Known about the structure:
alpha/beta, Rossmann fold, 2 domains, Sulfate_adenylyltrnsfr_sub2, catalytic activity, PAPS_reduct_dom, Rossmann-like_a/b/a_fold
Amino acid sequence: MLEQDSKLIIADALGSARNRIESHNRIAVSISGGSDSDTVLDIIKKCKTEKDIFFINFNTGLEYQATKDHLKYLENKYKIKIETIRPEKPVPLCVKQYGEPFLNKRASEMIMRLQRHNFTWEDKSFEELYKQYPNCKSALRWWCNCYDSYSLNISNNKFLKEFLIEYPPEFQISNLCCHYAKKVVAAEFNKSHNIDLVVNGIRKAEGGIRSVSYKSCFTPAKDKKKCDVYRPIFWFTDDIKRQYELENNIVHSKCYTEYGLKRTGCTGCPYGKNFEFELMVLQKYEPKLYKAAANVFKNSYEYTRQYRKYVKLKNNNGNVQLSLF
Ligand code: SF4
């Protein structure tokens, strides 16, 4: 992309941020302490508005000390107060009550639904299985690859179906920690503070189900009870983001600059493709958190390792004989 194009996209983002802020009254800006939220915060502060803006951070109960330190740095740099919102159920408690996240949101949710119906992980047609499990339609459609969109089917994760059939999970899997530690608290905050615009740092270029679910940087509220959602850096590629950071002297948390992480968020989340690296980093820099994550997500880490081994062997046409746990 030409530098000129990047400049236009950045100028566009700044202009549209100003317009979005000025056309709303009570705005909640989500500050995770990650690199995307650093850029969003800088853009919002450049809007120099008189509107009520709440800067909020959702502490899920598994946060890096480096993230907490960075939030303090941001408060000092921009002279703002970042309100920490604690969940009713932090991640370790959610995991204990509902199960561990495994692989990604979609797979965790569908496996959770199947487990609730005591599914026996069989390779049968949708019609046959639907007769056996009549209250589990959407998860069975995932299992049988019935969705039109490839990303909604189990085949989106190579050999996952074969793996689950050969090695069914012997622990509870669930996507509910995100729901209880993030979604519910965010909805409660928006309601109690009469928020009409939520601002977050989702970018199209980050990929994954989070970004592909959106078509543009703005989503109007579906009804009066919901808020509009605005994503100022939705169109920023990695290069544009880097350019913005350089031009605006953006400093990221130690998670990036010292630990070498590519993402932040809940410590050691098993959804992370590089969770093994993250665990090494944790052991070195934040050993207490390492112990916590290793304990909370123990089964999921082990199961993911076995799944990855399985995929590798299958890819090499090898005989797969794993000893699980
Ligand atoms: S990011 Fe991972 S650990 Fe954190 S709430 Fe979501 S699934 Fe759970």
